[in-house]
Amino acid sequence: MSNLLRELEKSQLRSDLPAFRAGDTVRVFLRIREGEKERVQYFEGIVIGFHRNGPSTTFKVRKESYGVGVERTFPLNSPLIEKIVVKKKGDVRRAKLFFLRKVSGKKARIREKKDWLGKKGIDVPVEGTAETPEAAVAASEEIAAPEDAAQAEATEPKE
Question: Which pTM does this prediction carry?
Answer without folding.
Answer: 0.67
